[in-house]
Design goal:
This protein is mainly α. The protein has a domain at about 5-40 and about 95-170. The protein is about 60% helix and about 5% strand. Helix 1 packs across helix 5 (about 100-125), helix 5 (about 100-125) crosses helix 6 (about 130-155) and helix 6 (about 130-155) runs antiparallel to helix 7 (about 160-170).
Length: about 170
């Protein structure tokens, strides 16, 4: 007899709730993420320089070039060499909506739970040994929650220390 995803709805819901609480505790209580973000040396000047650009929420990079051909031009290479080189994420003005973000995080954890339930229900037989289920579930959720930080460290400047901390957090 095969167990479908609908038969695992309670486990999916409970796992999302547990991950949601653990994530909140990691970010709000534990001290290891307190230094992940740094203050700019002259924050006011940086804000004053960005404000007139009226940036829409989104991702930006500096210097920005449209193609590899443009990146090879001497003036663009000069911009990269002179610096700064970086990525900038702009959020909507105002305080971040924590309620909305926490709800979206919970939905994300539900989706991970549904995907996990699908993988487990298709790869393990009914009545599989607990340790086998636990190992596969742990591996899949660790990959789902943590591996994005590795890509961000490789390509987008996420500090390695932050990526490593996110990997450790994902093991929870």
């Amino acid at each position: 007899m095969e167990i479908g995803i609908t038969g695992l709805w309670l486990a999916i819901l409970l796992s999302a709730l547990i991950v949601w609480v653990a994530s909140a505790l990691v970010w709000m209580v534990l001290p290891h993420h307190k230094k992940d973000f740094k203050r700019l040396p002259d924050e006011a000047a940086a804000i004053d320089a960005l404000r007139p650009q009226n940036l829409a929420p989104g991702q930006y990079n500096i210097p920005h070039c449209q193609s590899w051909d443009e990146a090879k031009k001497p003036e663009m290479m000069e911009k990269f060499n002179k610096g700064p080189v970086g990525y900038l994420r702009i959020l909507p003005n105002g305080m971040p909506n924590m309620g909305k973000n926490m709800a979206l995080a919970f939905v994300h954890y539900l989706v991970v739970g549904v995907v996990l339930a699908y993988i487990l229900s298709r790869t393990l037989p009914p009545g599989a040994e607990y340790l086998t289920v636990f190992r596969l579930a742990g591996l899949v959720t660790w990959v789902a929650y943590g591996m994005g930080s590795v890509n961000s460290a490789i390509w987008f400047g996420l500090p390695r220390s932050s990526a490593i901390k996110q990997q450790v957090d994902s093991l929870l």
